[in-house]
Description:
18 helices; 4-stranded mixed β-sheet
Amino acid sequence: MTMLLCGGMAFAQSGDPVIMTIAGQPVHRSEFEYSYNKNNAEGVIDKKTVDEYVDLFINYKLKVQAALDAKLDTMKSYQQEFRTYRDQQITPSFVTDEAVEKEARQVYQSTKDAIGPRGLIMPAHILVLLNQKATDAEQKAAKVRIDSIYQALKQGADFAELAKKVSQDPGSAKNGGVLPWIGPNQTLKEFEDAAYALKVGEMSQPVLSPAGWHIIMMKDRKQLEPYDSLRSDILKFLESRNVRERLAEQAVDSVAKQRSISREELLDERSAELQAKDVELDNLVREYHDGLLLYEISNREVWEKAAKDEIGLANYFSKNKKKYKWDEPRYKGMVYHVKDQADVKAVKNSVKGLDFSKWADKLRKTFNNDSIIRIRVEKGIFKKGDNAFIDKMVFKVDKPVTAVKDYPIDAVYGKLLKKGPEEYEDVKGLVTADYQEELEKAWVATLRKKYPVQVNQEVVKTVNKH
Length: 466
């Protein structure tokens, strides 16, 4: 039963009064507002008023209560899924900004140590590729080519323009041969040794490395910037590597070990602590909890139940057949394409008298069960315009069709349904959806009778107005 109270229910707390009680369980205004605002945000097409949403919310909570009574929250699968969602919100609380800062400084220091006094360089190069297994002739040709490039540079050719034209390193060539900043041990040793020996503006002689011949121009050099200059970039780098999550997981394991309790116990404890302080988090975790229960109970009571109830679907279709009447005839059958005239009759005979739903499997096993595809088939319930072959051969539409390659003979088999579907399978999707809706209405009606519901209308009037 439902009781609509007008100011008769006492506020549970001055800042967050009880807006309704369902099956003896109080629901505070903040929870209702959270749900209402989320489901009626900008962009939602079918927005509800607060009063309209009250009934929808009650139905939602009644279903959740039914799931709790059925002890669905004790299932291991449910508990595992709920913890996964909840812990994504709770685990980050175990890592502090100071811990992330410490990690960032460690990354900086290790980078600085790796670079050492040699610093960073920004070289440009022109590359002539040379395979390490190159023949003598190929080696000589590469040497002649790099020498000619070097001579052109010495005579005043523009390094960047020449790199764009002749360098065989496509990544850098388009940038005039310029490479990104590099540090020690980040590239080929021969290249690195030659590059680090150059001053800014200097150009090397041809240098041979395992990649080929290089001519290197030093564009710039520098030492690593101070930590504060790089801090934001390092933090972004750590974020992209999910370092905060890793630190949080390590912290959870460490704290649990120190206190001799399990991870689950620790996270349960932290969740309760944080939810008591943060109303938004409390509502979010409750949403996970209730939403998973709602899905499971609805699947059992409505969705899966309807989909599997063939007798119920057939009966529903029989009682509501007029609802599914078509505005134009449909052809229930198939158009098929074969290579051999004898297969036209063979295909018909293979499915004659067989339930329509079993045609596809029968045809596959009979004609296309090995590497040789004997027939091509399009099966279904067609209206005019759905299929060019059906249009021409059944609906007598005078339009050309494109023959199926390698399958020159076309045929159809089936029947024309002029008045509408003859069985629920013909419109199974629609019937299933409607049957599910009927089951849900009946289920909700049962829940309304089973569980008492009280609504404080005075609190309802204050939603989003306090």
